[in-house]
């Protein structure tokens, strides 16, 4: 096939959100958060540009101690290494974002389950869902500390967006108040399965199928050498063929994306775009992959409405219910 027929064939095959698409090299901006107190205005401009143009950015010198991140990953690996019967005592109740699940998340974009297990922490919903303290004495304290640090960083980023939106930072900070029983931000520990003994056909699945996040802002911690995250800034998509960009993990860097809730809350100024986790390619490590995501999601009773009032006001609770409903109807999300 010559290049042009090949391109056309590729174009026909690779359409739709769940398809492989094409790979495009491009940079996801890395934003330096150091000296935030004095550099706030500049940092705000950089965050705003990235969030309004592609919806993805990376943070360095973000202030979360590396030791806390390493401990959270070590505790996560210990948890996932426990026997299935132990983990099954902490089952995820669908729609709660709390507890453990194994290959239970089916993405509407692909119709198949993500090749992963996850354990999710949503603080007001954790009764009976923490691992046994005798077996994992440091788990809960490490996760609580890590969760709070992620919350604080997320609020710092949201405060910058508040400045540009012309609203008080309190709109976001009170809207994600962690002391409220309405709090529904989530720390999600992720374990993508080892592919060393996998069959060739297993590689046609996704570690995480293409989706946008429901929340306001996601902070994603990755481990270097454990790549696979790909992002798709909408505006570069070529017709219906989507262009995907690898975001290789780097030590000390947190990858962030805007979620659907903040897109609505900002009257569509801040962009929630597609991302996914692909299988390892030939020559890449077939080991398990671990990542940890913090989803800053407004409290259930927070009313979402942007400054330009483009959409009707809606509580974050009703918004999530609406999105879950759309998922069951087979739409992307
Ligand atoms: O594990 C990753 O790299 C991405 C996870 C993700 O996008 C999600 O859980 O929403
Ligand atoms: Fe995601």
TrEMBL record:
Belongs to the iron/ascorbate-dependent oxidoreductase family. Pathway: Alkene biosynthesis; ethylene biosynthesis via 2-oxoglutarate. One of its GO terms (biological process) is ethylene biosynthetic process. Residues 182-298 form the Fe2OG dioxygenase domain. Its EC number is 1.13.12.19, 1.14.20.7. The keyword Oxidoreductase applies. It catalyses: 2-oxoglutarate + O2 + 2 H(+) = ethene + 3 CO2 + H2O; L-arginine + 2-oxoglutarate + O2 = guanidine + L-glutamate 5-semialdehyde + succinate + CO2. One of its GO terms (molecular function) is 2-oxoglutarate oxygenase/decarboxylase (ethylene-forming) activity. InterPro entries: DIOX_N, IPNS-like_FE2OG_OXY, IPNS-like_sf, Iron_ascorbate_oxido_reductase, Oxoglu/Fe-dep_dioxygenase_dom. Its cofactor is Fe(2+). Coiled coil: none annotated. This is 2-oxoglutarate-dependent ethylene/succinate-forming enzyme. Keywords: Ethylene biosynthesis, Iron, Metal-binding, Oxidoreductase. The keyword Oxidoreductase applies. It comes from Tritonibacter litoralis.
